[in-house]
Design a protein that fits this description.
Largest sheet: 6 strands, mixed
Order of helices and strands: HEEHEEEEHH
Helix content: 25-40%
Number of helices: 4
Number of domains: 1
Radius of gyration: 16 Å
Structural class: alpha+beta
CATH topology: Nuclear Transport Factor 2, Chain: A
Distance between the termini: 42 Å
Number of strands: 6
Strand order of the largest sheet: 2-1-6-5-4-3
Length: 142
């Protein structure tokens, strides 16, 4: 069964500081009928999840994740992280986020929900545009 120690260990082997991620070692922990959701998409099924991970790998020149904290309550594991992404012709972008993993009675991942501000974190790295975006968000929502 997955624990905070095993998840921290497995996820730390997924991303590296110089190159593309490799998720092969964590895929066995996902149930065939799992559901993944983030700010961009909702994916149902392990095969579709693997396809999404492969697409992300192809798009990124480099991808790194630093786990800041991790906690578990019964069958729910929460991770706070910073993911640094570098697309082919763009500077690196830091995404700050949280992942919620929900395990079934067999310890398999049934749900993964990633929470992050994709556009804000990416726009912050674009000169002048990032400040304009933050002013707009504050004026409209804050």
């Amino acid at each position: 069964m997955l624990t905070i120690d095993s998840v921290a260990d497995l996820w730390s082997k997924t991303y590296n500081t110089h190159g593309k991620p490799d998720w092969e070692h964590i895929f066995p922990y996902y149930h065939q009928d799992m559901v993944f959701q983030d700010s961009v998409q909702r994916i149902e099924g392990k095969d579709e999840f693997i396809d999404m991970c492969n697409r992300l790998t192809k798009r990124c020149k480099e991808l790194e994740m630093k786990i800041l904290s991790i906690a578990q309550n019964d069958n729910v594991i929460l991770m706070e992280w910073i993911m640094t992404m570098q697309f082919k012709r763009n500077p690196t972008s830091d995404l700050h986020g949280t992942t919620k993993l929900v395990l079934n009675e067999d310890g398999m991942i049934m749900e993964q929900r990633d929470y992050y501000d994709l556009w804000g974190d990416i726009f912050d790295n674009i000169p002048r545009f990032g400040k304009a975006y933050r002013r707009f968000m504050k004026r409209k929502f804050g």
